[in-house]
Structure formats: C-alpha cells, structure tokens
Amino acid sequence: MAGGKLRVGIAGIGTVGGGLVKLFADEKSRLNEKMELVAVSARNRSRTRSFDISPYKWFDDPVELARQPDIDVVVELIGGSDGPAKRAVEIALARGAHVVTANKALIAVHGAELAGLSEEHGAKLMFEAAVGGGVPMIKALKESLAGCRAQSVAGILNGTCNYILTEMEHAGRSFEDVLADAQRLGYAEADPTMDVGGFDAAHKLTILSAIAFGARPDFEHVRIEGIEGVTLTDIRLASKLGYRIKLIAKGELIDGKVSMHVRPALLSFDHPLAAIAGSLNALVVDAEPVGQLTFIGRGAGEGPTASSVASDLLDIAEGRGGPAFGRPLAQLADAPRATPAERGRFYMRVLVEDKPGVVAALSDRLAHENISIESFLQMPAYGEPAVPIVLTTQTCTRAALDAAARAIESLDAVTEPPRVMPVEEHGSRRPPWSQR
Ligand SMILES: NC(=O)c1ccc[n+]([C@@H]2O[C@H](COP(=O)([O-])OP(=O)(O)OC[C@H]3O[C@@H](n4cnc5c(N)ncnc54)[C@H](OP(=O)(O)O)[C@@H]3O)[C@@H](O)[C@H]2O)c1
After folding, report:
1. For residue 302, which atom of ligand 1 is closest to its CA?
2. pLDDT tens for residues 143-165?
3. Catalytic residue at 204?
4. Which strand (E) or helix (H) includes residue 98?
5. How far apart are CA 289 and CA 383, in angstroms?
6. Which pLDDT does position 381 carry in this prediction?
7. 343-434 is classed in which CATH architecture?
8. In the chain, which residues fall in CATH 3.30.360.10?
C-alpha cells in the first residue's frame, strides 16, 4: 500500500481490462480515492489501444506481474480455465495478494482450490463480473440474500445464445443463418462452441449454484445441452402452444441435492425469463422466505463488466467481501454423487410419415409409460414426406419420458429421434388453488 492506497495490477487489458483502465483514468472515479493502478500486462505491448498504458509499469508475463510484492490486488482479465490466468491467480493468492477476476471458466473449474488458497493466505478472491456482466447476481446471492434459503436459480446467462434464439423467432431464420451473421458482426466467436454448446452458461451456473446452495463448485455435475439442435420448427410450434424457447441455466435443490442443467427449455409467455430478448442476461432466484426475485441487465461488454470488477475492487479497499463462495470452504457441502431424478412437464417433437394410425401409436407409447398428454399439435403435410407432431406432457419423470421416446423412435413411421425439451415452470409448482 502506498499513501494508504491499494496498489492494483491488471493482467489482461482487452475488452474488460481496457474498460477498467479507462475507469482508473477517469479522475472522478471512486476507484482513485482508494486505489492506484500501477501495472498492466498483456500479450502485445505495441498493439494500438483506445487508452494510454504509458503511466503504468508493463509486464509481458502476467505471472511476473502477479509476483510483484508491491502489488496489493491482482485483477485477472485474461480468460481460460488454465494457463497463465490460473498461474497468475495462484501466485497472487499464495503471497497474500487479493485477486479480482471476471474469469468464469477458472472459477467454475478450479474455484474450490482457489478459495482454499485465498483462505489459507488471508487474501480475498472476488468474481462478480464472472456471472451476468454488469448485473450484480453474485453479490445479491452472497450478501443480500444471505438470510434466505434458495430453492432454485434459473437464468439466461449467455447473451449470444439468447440473441440467436431471439433472432430466429423474430426474423424466422435458421440457427446456422443467424449464427453466421452473429459471427460476421462480432457478436459470436469464430469458434462458437463455448457459447452455443452451453458451456459458458454452465460455468456461470456452477458459480451461482455454489453460492446459492452453499455447496462446493462442481462443474462436472452440470448436465449441458446447447442450442444447436433447436430448429425453426420447434420455435414456431412451441409458440403455437403458448411457449418461447430459451437456453435456461438452472440449479435447484431436489430432495436436498443440487441439480444443475443448462439446456433449451420452453417457457410460457408469462414466465419472467420469456420476455428477455436479444443479448440481455437475467436471473430468477426463488428463495424462502423472500419469494421470487428477478435480475435483468447487460451480461457482457466493456462498461458493464468493468463496472462489476470495479465494485469488487471497492469492496476490497473498504474491507468488505467475505469468503469467495459466501461461506468458508469447510462449510460448503460436498458435491452430490448421484444426480437427482427429474420430474416435470416436457415438450416432444416427432417427425412422422403422414400415415393413418401414427397418432394413436404415439399416444399408446406414451400411455404405456403412464404419461398423459397436455397439449397436442399436428401440422398439415403440404405434400412433404414427413410432418412434425408436437406435444407437451403432464408432469412425469424424465426416465419415463426417455423410455417413451425410445419406443416412439422405433415406430416405422417415425423418421428421426424425437426431440425432447423440458417445460420450465415458474413460481410455485403448486397449482394456484392449493397455495397458502
Ligand atoms: N468481454 C466480456 O464482455 C466479458 C464479460 C464477462 C466476463 N468476461 C471475462 O473476462 C475475461 C477477459 O475477457 P475479455 O473479453 O476482456 O478478453 P479479451 O478482450 O480477449 O482480452 C484478453 C486480454 O488478455 C491478454 N492475454 C490473452 N492471452 C494472454 C496470455 N497468454 N498471456 C498474457 N496475456 C494474455 C490479451 O492480450 P492482448 O491485448 O495483447 O491481445 C488481452 O489483453 C475472460 O475471462 C472473460 O470470460 C468477459
């Protein structure tokens, strides 16, 4: 500390790191009352940047920056679950320097280990910007809702996927078409797997679930399905049944165990997440006794994300911010060994040859597994060899639905494996007449 101010080093000055350098350069920023930016690091010193790096000490190697004994807080904004980002964070914590990061992959995969290092060396580890960009989701769960018992957290946590699904619905364009456009416009990465495959949302869900349910972060147990298989037909037919399709990241307690899913799901139009359009992020927290809370805002981008990093820095400077996941590591529950059995309502799309008796055969396979149909829609064939049939079920187990789907797939008239998506409930799962 120099003159009572914390000395900060930023490793990674791209989109988010650059935003943070600009916040430090703003004389009116509160950051400057408590802190001083002293060093930066990136791969390429001579790259043209929209901010001045000459006042700060330069490091080619972020690990070297993290090693400097006169840097009190290391801000890691490089990215990636391993490599230099992880090394820099480990080195900083191990010498007792505080760490702020926006790196969801790192915290989801190595969070428990890093939280252990932070406790051992009395250094803070903070990552508000890792989930929801500028929306204070972590602080809400960790601090504002600390007195509540969370039952579920369900969110739209990946702006790229939400943008693609919104565009497909509004413009009637295919997944491939919208993705190609998003890549051309820079909204999606050249390799979009992290986003459209659901992995980015799964990293964020891992972090939220750990804090919400007081459990060790456990990325391995997230069941992940991306949006690549969502077709325009699904979007249109789900809409006719009163639903919108979104990539939902959901963690919930089932029989006292944490269940985590990222997958496309159907939301009725009055679900609080159904109205979240474009690249916005949102989170619905259901907790006792507060009830349901919804957070909405910009989940990415230079300004929003840097502002969350800045708030972590101010917390450190002003002595706030407890254990990384809200409770000391020893008090976090272990990861469940078995995934809890799932129950709910489901959507199924079956592509069939337009022959008499197909609908009866389909209902028969569902009835055999004790599954009742809630709504049903068959499209006219318009001369096409195969027609889609879509239905939603009443509440059943996922195991029964999967068994019925296998039996349906083996029917002669069915031309491809049925497509199944859950229907996302909201509010209390009890019907209105039974609520206290
Ligand atoms: N962008 C967002 O809106 C957003 C939102 C929430 C969270 N995040 C997270 O924030 C972190 C940073 O994201 P970003 O979008 O700012 O990334 P970015 O624009 O790609 O910037 C990455 C920075 O890290 C530096 N870097 C990359 N590899 C390096 C290496 N091997 N050694 C040293 N420096 C290296 C780059 O150097 P050069 O500048 O020389 O290339 C650059 O300054 C990631 O963890 C990301 O997931 C981003």
Report:
1. 3
2. 999 999 999 999 999 999 999 99
3. yes
4. strand 98-101
5. 56
6. 67
7. 2-Layer Sandwich (3.30)
8. 137-298
